[in-house]
């Protein structure tokens, strides 16, 4: 069983597009659901931290492997 | 909700958003290290868009297929082309300008808006029932399907997924075509040559790249500045450089 409810492929997108698309995805989810985002822009690490701090959504995990970043965000 | 056709008169903006001087077209912009706008991103916004909840700040970063940033898209393809800064109708028209300016294929951008917004019944600045063309709505009983999601559900009964995507993308293309003449007229009214749009975009990007690298490396919290654009040169003049370590003016030749 996967640990997320919806997945967003933001690979190849640079700031600010991963955040913009993540916000759209989260808007369509219900509270408590988890969005997994895969991105390649190194700036997205800082961006998603600030995004979660400002929106109150919970950044559950950030991982990096082979030039790709994965973020799990729980909608609050 | 009021229906907007997405057009703006470039001469009707207050000087705080867009003005003409002997040096060229002047467009005020603002920078913040963190925007308190529900996105929290670092970057720049046109002042005309600074309170628009749909607009996210942009850095110097360019797209994989596009050599200019989101800020330059907002500036050239929306504001100076005489389109609203946000809204799907305006975006359809602005993307035609982006495609012309950068040679990028805008079909995938249209498809993305279809799959991320329209398919959920969501359109910025107007109702889906006013946004969609009559030929698509002809067999949708609007008295029964009053909201956007209902309209999409009714369309999903009539068309399979691929067909509906195709119809909606075609509608974006049709809307985009409607803005071509207005965009050219808007550029000319501002004294800019539409044929120079690619070079002007690249010059603006060079200026933005230099300034954005500086403000990021210096950890600057907030700045106000003005882009000054003409057919030969693009510049960014910083309003208050005291203590920032920035120059007063950054510029790049067009072409």
Parts with pLDDT < 50 across at least 5 consecutive residues of chain B: none
Please count the beta strands of chain B (DSSP E, at least 2 residues each).
6
Average per-residue pLDDT of chain A, rounded, comes to: 94
User: Structural class per helix/strand content of chain A?
Assistant: alpha+beta
What CATH architecture of chain A do you see?
2-Layer Sandwich
Elements of chain A, N to C (H/E): EHEHEE
Sketch the topology of chain B as an H/E string, one letter per element.
EEEHHHHHHHHHEEE
Q: Please, how many domains of chain B?
A: 1
What level of helicity do the residues of chain A show? 25-40%
Number of strands of chain A: 4
Instruction: Please give the domain count of chain A.
Output: 1
Mean of all residue-level pLDDT scores of chain B: 95
Largest sheet of chain A: 4 strands, mixed
Give the quaternary arrangement of the chains. Answer: heterodimer
CATH superfamily of chain A: TusA-like domain
Rough outline of chain A: globular
Descriptive account of the structure:
The complex is a heterodimer of chains A (76) and B (255). Chain A has one domain: Translation Initiation Factor IF3, CATH 3.30.110. Chain A has 76 residues and is α+β, with helices and mostly antiparallel strands. In chain A, a hairpin with a 2-residue loop joins strand 3 (58-65) and strand 4. Chain A has helices at 17-27, 44-55; strands spanning 6-10, 34-39, 58-65, 68-74. In chain A, 30% of the residues lie in helices and 34% in strands. In chain A, strands 1-2-4-3 form a four-stranded mixed beta sheet, with helices on one face. By secondary structure, chain B is of the alpha+beta class. Chain B has one domain. Helix content of chain B is 41%, strand content 14%. Chain B has helices at 70-79, 88-102, 107-116, 128-131, 134-137, 148-158, 161-178, 180-189, 197-218, and strands at residues 19-21, 24-32, 43-46, 222-229, 233-238, 249-253. The radius of gyration of chain B is 19 Å and the shape is elongated. Chain A binds chain B through residues 12-17, 19-21, 23-25, 28, 41, 43, 46-47, 50-51, 53-55, and chain B through 34, 36, 38-43, 56-59, 61-64, 70, 116-117, 120.
